[in-house]
Amino acid sequence: MHRLIYFPVPGRAEASRIALSLSGIEWEDVEVNGLEFNKMKQEGKLPWGMLPILQTKEGTLAESSAILRYAGKVAGLVPEDPFQAAKVDEFIDGMGPIARAMDTTFGIEDVNERIRLRKQLFEPDGAATKALNLYDEKLGQSKSGWAANTDAMSIADLKLFTELFAFFSGTYDGIEKSMVMGYKNILNYHQKVANEERIKNHYEGITVEDIRWTFLPGAFE
C-alpha cells in the first residue's frame, strides 16, 4: 500500500494523485490539516520538513517532483527515450518561478495587501505574466501539443496542467480566471489535456462547484 499525504487541496500533490490513479497500484490519498502537519513535522516524519510525502514499503519519499517521477514511471508516463525523458525533466525543473512568486504571498495576513501583491504578479512586468508568456511560447513550439513535445502525455503535462490551472480556481484571493484568458496556446493546451480520455475519466463526477473545476473540459471557454 502506498500512502500519499498532503493537504485537502490540489497544490503540489495533484499531479502525483493522477499518476498514482493511472498506475494501477494500490494507494491511499491521505489528507491532513495544519495541526496534523505540524505534529508529523515535530515527530520527524517529514524527511525535508514539508508535504507531500509518499509512504512506500521501501520507505518514505519526499519532494513533489521526486514523488511525481516515481509515480509517473509506474504509470508509464515517463518516456523510455532518454532524450524525451530529459526534456520532461527540463520542463518540470523549469516550472519553478510562478510557484515561487506565489509562495511569497501566502504568509501575508492582510487580505488587501495579499491581493495587491498577487495582482502585481500579473502586471505586464510581473513574475506570473513572464511565466505565462514563457509557457505560452513553449506550448506554441511543441509539435505534438504536449508540454515537453513528447510523443504522448507525460508527467510534465500532469504538473503543468494541475499546478497552472489551479491558480485560477478562485481559491487564491486576487487571482481571477480572466488573467489567463489572453493566452491562446495555454487555453488550447487546457482543452487538449482536459479532454484526454484518462484525465477526463479521472475527474468524472467533479462539478463546477468543486475546487478542481478548472481541470474540466470547457472550464476556460
Output the helix-strand order: EHEHEEHHHHHHHH
Terminal residue distance: 39 Å
Q: Give the C-alpha Rg.
A: 17 Å
**Total count of helical runs of at least 4 residues:** 10
* Coarse shape: globular
Low-confidence stretches: none
User: What is the CATH domain class of the largest domain?
Assistant: Mainly Alpha
Query: How would a crystallographer describe the biggest sheet?
Result: 4 strands, mixed
Which percent bin holds the helix content? 40-55%
What is the count of β-strands?
A: 4
CATH architecture heading of the largest domain? Up-down Bundle
Keywords summarizing the entry:
single chain; 221 residues; alpha+beta; Glutaredoxin; Glutathione S-transferase Yfyf (Class Pi), Chain A, domain 2; four-stranded mixed sheet; 10 helices; 4 strands; 48% helix; globular
Written overview of the protein:
- With 221 residues, the chain is α+β, with helices and mostly antiparallel strands.
- It folds into two domains: 2-75, Glutaredoxin, CATH 3.40.30.10; 82-213, Up-down Bundle (Glutathione S-transferase Yfyf (Class Pi), Chain A, domain 2), CATH 1.20.1050.10.
- Helices cover 48% and strands 8% of the residues.
- It has a four-stranded mixed β-sheet, covered by helices on one side.
- The chain is globular, with a radius of gyration of 17 Å.
- The model has no long low-confidence stretch (mean pLDDT 95).
